[in-house]
Amino acid sequence: MNIIRRPLRPFMGRLAGLTVVTVAFFATGAVPVSAAYADSKTVSVLGHGEASAVPDMAVLSAGVEVTKPTAKEALDSQGAIAKAVLDAVRARGLTDKDIRTEAMSLNPVYTYNDAGAQLAGYQASQAFSLKIHKLDKADEVVEAVVNASGNAGRINGIAFEAENTKALREEARMQAFWDAHDKAEQYADLSGLRLGRALSIDETSDNHFYKGGGETGAPARTAGAPIAPGEIHGKVDTTVVFEIK
Q1: In whole angstroms, what is the distance from residue 191 CA to residue 182 CA?
Q2: Percent helix, strand and coil across the chain, each rounded to 5?
Q3: Of 151, 132, 116, which Cα lies nearest the Cα of 61?
C-alpha cells in the first residue's frame, strides 16, 4: 500500500503539553467561552484529512446452493460441495483464518398451480467470505470455487481492501491536523496575532474507509473476467483549539 506523507513540522513538538480548554476568541467551529479561560485568546478550527491507497487484498463472497427432494438430501449435498470448495481454496493458499461462514439456510421450495402450493423439495445454502491476501491470486481462488462447486456455486461479490489500514488512518489524521493548523494560522495573521500551541484536539470522524471510483493500475482477472480494484480512501475530521497571542 503506497500513500503520500506530508513531512512533519517542528510545530508537532508543541503538542507535548496538550490540555483541554474551551474557546475564548473563536472562529470556525468555536465552542462556548469558559470563565476559567476568559482571558485566553484561542481559535477553534475544523480540519479535514484524506489518504488513499491502491488495494492490496480482496474479500470474495461466494457460496453453495443446492435443491433436492428431501431436507436431508439437500443438506448432505450442500455439505459435500461446500467441503470441496473449502478444500479447493485451501489448496490455493487460504488458511482457516481467511475463511468464514457468513450464512447457512435450509428452506422448503414450493411450486404453484391451480391446486395451490405444492412442496417441490428443499433448498440448502451456505455463504462464505474468503480473504485473498494477494490480488494476483484472486483469479485462482474464484476459479477454484467455480470448479469445485459446479452449477451449485455462487459468486456474490468481491470487495477490495488494504492490509494495513492503520497507516492509511494515520496519514488521514496527519493531513487533518495540518489542515486545521493552516486555517488557524491564517486566522491568527488576519487578527494581527501569532499562532501558539495546540491546546486540544477532538477527532470527530468515524475513521471509515470507502471505495474510490476509477481503475488504478493494471486490472486483474477473475475467472476470465477483468476486475478493476480502483483505490480506497480513509478520512478523518478533527476540531483543534489553538492558542493565539
Answers
A1: 14
A2: 30, 40, 30
A3: 132
Mean pLDDT of each 10-residue bin along the chain, 245 residues long: 49 40 41 47 94 91 97 97 97 96 96 89 97 91 95 93 87 95 96 94 72 45 65 91 95
pTM for the full predicted model: 0.64
Longest alpha-carbon distance in the chain: 87
* Type of residue at 159: A
**Cα gap 29→62, rounded to integer Å:** 46
CB 52 within 8 A of CB 3: yes
Q: Which residues are paired to 5 by β-bridges?
A: none
Say if residue 137 is exposed, middle or buried (CB neighbours under 10 Å; 0-12, 13-18, 19+). middle
Element (H, E) at 104: strand 99-113
For residue 147, the surrounding DSSP H or E stretch is: helix 138-149
Distance of alpha carbon 152 from the chain centroid: 30
Other CB atoms within a 10 A radius of the CB of residue 112 amount to 9
Q: What is the C-alpha separation between 180 and 195, in angstroms, rounded?
A: 12
